[in-house]
């Protein structure tokens, strides 16, 4: 059960969305391919988390069924990251981030099924508005079809593990949750590497030799974008519904596109249709709290009218 979020919670949520908007930029700055990048990112994340948990004297132990659930969720996270960075590589950071905006629609469909609550017409409507915005982007940027398809798949997986994680937050510490999920993500990526090597690479070789600059960027991905931001997001799930969080995360393309333009300049310059579609997506994000508040007031007035 979520509690009413405070201003501090909203500021923290937007701060981690800003951090995540930077991940696609880091993914393009790192020279090794997406799968190898995810492998090293998760490995460093586990090491950072292990040290953090040891220093804070957090208990690692938990029932095996719970541990397996967390590790299974980690498998979804690994697949999400592989598709995310892959989308940025085959298209652009902006296209990747725009495709991720569909996570709110997926959440509006999956959260009621997994959490056992009623489907919200408002959430479905706003999710479809996001899809309209995405269609506009897709229509004007058709040459990036593969990238946007991979990004949509990544968004679906993000919605799933967000909804699932909401059920863990009242049982376990956020850093412990992240630790076991990273172990599951690491095992999943490790098992995927042979398949990736023999069937999805041109040379049938893995690039497991990051440069010193790569290691620096991967360390930032692991320490700030994963351990810090992801653990904070898990903690914020006590205050926000999965849909409210993922709808706010739709602002990630805005932060990411601005950062991408600052880093890559004309390489990230898109058509006017792309930005029009992005505005539609943003409208859905900004309308949600307004419409939800108005609908709640309308329901209260109707209830009061019936009792009078």
From TrEMBL:
Pfam families: EamA
Superkingdom: Bacteria
UniProt domain EamA: residue ranges: 16-138, 146-287
Keywords on record: Membrane, Transmembrane, Transmembrane helix
Cellular component terms per the entry's GO annotation: membrane
Transmembrane segments: 12-32, 38-55, 121-140, 146-168, 175-195, 215-233, 240-262, 274-291
Alphabetized InterPro entries for the sequence: EamA_dom (IPR000620), EmrE-like (IPR037185)
Record-given protein name: DMT family transporter
Biological source species: Rhodocytophaga rosea
Biological classification of the source: Bacteria, Pseudomonadati, Bacteroidota, Cytophagia, Cytophagales
């Amino acid at each position: 059960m979520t509690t009413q979020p405070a201003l501090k919670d909203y500021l923290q949520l937007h701060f981690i969305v800003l951090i995540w908007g930077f991940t696609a930029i880091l993914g393009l700055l790192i020279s090794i391919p997406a799968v190898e990048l995810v492998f090293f990112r998760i490995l460093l994340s586990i090491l950072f988390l292990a040290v953090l948990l040891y220093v804070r004297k957090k208990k690692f132990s938990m029932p095996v069924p719970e541990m397996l659930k967390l590790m299974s969720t980690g498998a979804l996270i690994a697949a999400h990251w592989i598709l995310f960075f892959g989308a940025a590589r085959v298209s652009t950071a902006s296209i990747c981030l725009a495709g991720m905006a569909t996570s709110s629609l997926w959440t509006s469909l999956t959260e009621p099924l997994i959490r056992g609550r009623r489907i919200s017409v408002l959430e479905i409507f706003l999710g479809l508005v996001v899809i309209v915005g995405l269609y506009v982007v897709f229509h004007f940027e058709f040459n990036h079809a593969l990238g946007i398809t991979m990004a949509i798949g990544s968004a679906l997986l993000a919605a799933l593990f967000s909804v699932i994680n909401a059920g863990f937050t009242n049982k376990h510490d956020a850093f412990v949750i992240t630790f076991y999920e990273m172990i599951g993500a690491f095992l999943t990526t490790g098992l995927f590497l042979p398949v990736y090597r023999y069937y999805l690479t041109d040379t049938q070789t893995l690039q497991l030799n990051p440069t010193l600059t790569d290691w620096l960027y991967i360390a930032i991905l692991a320490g700030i974008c994963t351990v810090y931001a992801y653990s904070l997001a898990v903690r914020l799930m006590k205050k926000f519904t999965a849909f409210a969080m993922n709808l706010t995360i739709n602002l990630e393309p805005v932060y990411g596109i601005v950062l991408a333009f600052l880093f890559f300049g004309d390489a990230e310059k898109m058509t006017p249709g792309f930005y029009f579609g992005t505005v539609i997506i943003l409208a859905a994000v900004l309308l949600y709290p307004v419409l939800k508040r108005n609908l709640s007031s309308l329901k209260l007035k109707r209830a009061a009218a019936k009792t009078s």
